[in-house]
Amino acid sequence: MLVFPQHASHYGCEKQILKLVEITSAKWTCSASCIKCYVDNGWKYLLSTPCKHGLREAEFIEQNPKLQNGGSDSGGGFVENSKRFMVADNLHISPISSISLIMTKGIDFLISDVVEKEVIVDKAKVLSLLGVMLISKSVLTDVFAPKQKRRSICHYM
Q1: Residues 20/7, Cβ–Cβ less than 8 Å
Q2: What's the predicted TM-score (pTM) here?
Q3: Name one Pfam family in it (predicted).
Q4: What number of other Cβ atoms are within 10 A of residue 139's Cβ?
């Protein structure tokens, strides 16, 4: 995953910033008949004759779950319109508004701990995020927060 990052089929979009490769949709072939006749026949193959619909085999293609009628359209973006999200240090994503921030339950933080930051995420930053998330519980802080300079204290006697 870290060497060749890909995203699941049907989760791509036209405005892809990172240019990640999308895994191709799965295809299956039922060499018995159409799926309806296969199920109606008690999941038994009709080897010698075609089914009542005239098929000897059927191909099944994974459909896009984001579209009501299936299809292969990749969509325009991750969200429909301009939306704001809160991404916690553990990479939990939730929609954000002033009221949702105040009413957030189950997350222990102070309002003063919340930092609004706009970041540009390129492929190198994503790979950095993937690497840090394997070893840290504060991924966003480790990747995006500026490293504080440590003051060296010298004691002279």
Answers
A1: yes
A2: 0.40
A3: DUF674
A4: 21
